[in-house]
Amino acid sequence: MSKKAIEKVFAPAPPHFVGDGFRVHNFIPGQGRLPMQRMDPFIMLDYGSKHYFPPREVPRGVGVHPHRGFETVTIAYKGRVAHNDSSGGGGVIGEGDVQWMTAASGVLHKEYHEAEFSRQGGEFQMVQLWVNLPAKDKMSAPKYQALQNETIQRYMLPDNGGEIEVIAGQYKGVNGSASTFTPIHMLNAKLKSGAAADFSFPATYNTALLVVEGAVTLHGNTVVPTDHFVLFKNEGEDIVVAATEDAIVLVLSGQPINEPIASHGPFVMNTREELIQAVEDFNNGRFGHLAD
Predict the structure, then answer these.
(1) Kindly report the CA angle at 30 between 28 and 32, in degrees rounded to 5?
(2) CA dist 238 → 106, 200, 205, 253, 272 (Å)
């Protein structure tokens, strides 16, 4: 067994709001934290830790905005989000669901608290990831994958220890529900108190985990509390996660694309010239149309 060494454990940064509906801690890239290249292909991670939103008739959220050159992945832990994009994708992301939107050549997108959730109020907890695309796929056609929780493939841990939801990639022979452009593992480990799960990823893959609920111990000696993020070194392959209380852990590991990253706001390309083109295309209405 070749243990994957821990590089750093990050406490959550002070939260900020995206629009008026998403209160998030940014882990990637994050000022003074992880540059996009360090966790490529995971080039952005906003974590909306558990937060109560009071009832409101007009749903909170983010209005129409563009994306090009990557994919957005939204994982719902608490609350519900309604969203639409200019390529025809859309729907409601409920608790346990995953929305995987390939912006690629460009879409307009909007996302709000789902109307009934907004009227009732309640706890809200989400993760949004940006997943990079290789240069050859950045201008491919947009597409959309709606993964309802009941359709996500699972590996059941022995002795009623919990389950591993395989969103993408694979775990012990169980293949993930999402299709990806490059090799990616994205797993929700839902562990009962006292249970443990082992993971193995190539040493060259960029690997991290986020403790969404509860607390865990890594490799038998590093305690990681709720809302903390762990970055692993690119050495070793194996990780052992033991739950000291009922826990949910988002596990991420992916093969780096290792291409230049040029980013500006909602556009992630390979060159400055491509960014200029993205802004021009957006300003000239080439991303389609989406009403507010």
Answers:
(1) 125
(2) 37, 4, 12, 12, 38
Split at pLDDT 50, 70, 90, the class of 1 is: low
Closest CA to 66 of 42, 92, 35, 101: 101
**What is the distance between the alpha carbons of residues 167 and 110, in angstroms, rounded to a whole number?**
23
Q: Are 286 and 105 in contact (CB under 8 A)?
A: no
pLDDT digits (tens, 9 = 90+) for 111-154: 999 999 999 999 999 999 999 999 999 999 999 999 999 999 99
d(C-alpha 182, C-alpha 68), whole Å: 17
SS3 track for 188-244: EEEECCCCEEEEECCCCCEEEEEEEECCEEECCCEEECCCCEEEECCCCCEEEEEEC
Q: Compute the mean pLDDT over every residue in the chain, rounded to the nearest whole number.
A: 95
Q: Are 70 and 38 spatial neighbours (Cβ–Cβ below 8 Å)?
A: no
Kindly state the DSSP code that residue 3 receives in the 8-state scheme. Answer: B
Token look-up 């309604």 returns: 82
Predicted pLDDT of residue 87: 85
Which helix H or strand E contains 279, and what residues bound it?
A: helix 272-283
Q: Tokens for 66? A: 């563009």
Pick from 155, 147, 134, 131: nearest CA to 45 = 131
Token pair, residue 49, equals 């830790």
- Residue reference for tokens 């596990």: 251
Residue 291: burial class (beta carbons within 10 Å; 0-12, 13-18, 19+): exposed
User: Which own/partner contact pairs does 272-277 have at CB distance under 8 Å and 24+ positions apart?
Assistant: 274/69, 274/138
pTM of the complete model: 0.97
Contacts 24+ apart (CB under 8 A), 220-223: 222/6, 222/9
Residue that wins the pLDDT comparison between 289 and 131:
131
Rg (CA), the chain: 18
